[in-house]
Amino acid sequence: MPDRDPSWEHREQRFSSLYREHYRSVQAYAVRRVESQADAADVVADVFATTWRRLSEVPDPPADLLWLYGVARRVVAGKRRSAMRMRNLIARLQATAVPASTVTGDQVTDRVLDAVATLRPVEREALALVHWEQLSHAEAAQVLGCSENAVAIRVHRARTRLRQVLGEPEPAPPDARNECLAVVSDSPQASEG
Amino acid sequence: MQLDDLLSAADPARHAQIDDADSHRATALYRRIVGTPPSRGGGGVPTKAPRQGGHLRMHSHGQPVQMLPRLSVTAAVAVAVVVAAAFGLVAFVGGSRAPHNTLAGGGAKPPRSAASLRPSSSSPRPSSARSQSARLNQAGPVLDALAAVAAGRPPTSLVPGPGQYLYVLDIELKGAPSGGGASMPCGSVIRQEWLASDGSGRQVGYSPGCGSNEDRFTQSWRTIGNGIDFNYLAWQGLPTQPAAMETAIVQRFEGGHANNAITFLLATGVLNFTAPPAVRSALFKMLATMPGVQYLGKVTDPLGRTGDTIALNQYARHPGNLHGIHLGHLGNLVVIFDPKTSQVLDEAPTPPSRRIHLPRQMPPWLAPFMYVKTGIVGSIKATPPGTSKLLRTIPYRHWV
User: Fold this and answer.
1) Contact, B337 vs B343, CB < 8 A?
2) Given an 8 Å threshold on Cβ–Cβ distance, is B115 in contact with A88?
3) Is the Cα torsion angle A176, A180, A186, A191 positive or negative in sign?
4) What integer pLDDT is reported at residue B319 of this predicted model?
5) Measured between beta carbons, which residues in chain A are less than 8 angstroms from residue B20?
């Protein structure tokens, strides 16, 4: 066995720690955003390959996960660009034809996901980060490279749109209105009354 | 049910199998990334990773960033997705290259392929009907004319030889919010691709209207192996008789039951590049008899190029799911062909609807893929003559 370079040792230690800690989170992120198992696996591989290459740029916890989400977001965006041609439909079919998300047979789930699919991409991503990745607005802003306020607005718009599409009633007037205002403006004035 | 509850219940990750970091698959990926030969478990078969000191520890003796040195079937398919999607090319998985034309010859059942084991949830018609009748669809005359043009093109103009690469420059515009407007700057991309005949390749792209962190990306991929033939040049061996061509596609990709959506995607994908004239001509003729294919007239793209526009209305023919994929969500695919060369100028998805509306002047917000330049080059970084100037003069800023 060849001698191990200490810096290499350290590098791998760091990477393996990241890998162990966040593999599931990255995989879940991918599964939520691409349609097939093969594509999700591809995203996970790309994210960690990028992480390995750019290990020195990965911030310390807890920001490391946000950094990984940022990479994953760009990887998924790259895949979507190609996917728009719809060619990958064929590749998916010839591959496994196993959708990453098992949505068949659940009408409510299908309905919600259909509604989510109608959102603008920026709103959909903000909503997913907050609701599914369970990030705060500040954390989601870090992933998206935008302001916290912008995230709040996107999530608010996404939720409003979803309610319309799903026919869900608006929350009770006084509290809900104030809550929404507070979310949108994030200012004390907006939530008064 | 409240919206939050609905969203939680619909979380795709709750319905999918999420692996642990020490699962077989995760461990194998880890090894590939750090370039580690498996040191435990024997026989080179990746096994569950040993845990040491709270870390996932692999014995790495090799070089860093030895990406995907041995492709698993899944990985190979994933790479093939990139290749096929990036270049609009389609490859065949093994098998013979000259399938029997059993469907056209009296409706005999074709040999069952591996694909036929999959459920065919939206295969509404037997392919023999199409092959036997050979009745031109509404777009038939235009497609027949394109077939004639394709047949007369130089035979190897876009097929890379040894040490050569197929170069493609394309622009993808990202759609504006519903109702129209300018294209959205982020996500729209100017992209250059290089593809060798062995399937390896490279892609670089940038989004001039985007922020600093998202304006460029690069990816490359290696030769695809493991006995799976993803070589797009396999198209050269395809039958050149339209009905036999259709049979080959149906057998290999559609489980023996023709599905217009898949056939159309395959055909238009291959028509993009690399297929020799006889194959391209046969593909046009095949499309000319496919139900649901429509001619939308002459359309001018955002680069000012005018071509013949063909579309498959998937909404009318195939509502619902196909192997768990919502075809309706994919919309209708519109393809613009250059009548002089028969090459694809643009592809544009349109919203799923029963009627396809496309303005004579295609607005940027319809999010077309515009194929700007193709050619054969001698290295993975070379570009055909005139490309640099072309890149400088792309009026991207006017579209966003």
Assistant:
1) yes
2) no
3) negative
4) 41
5) 23-24
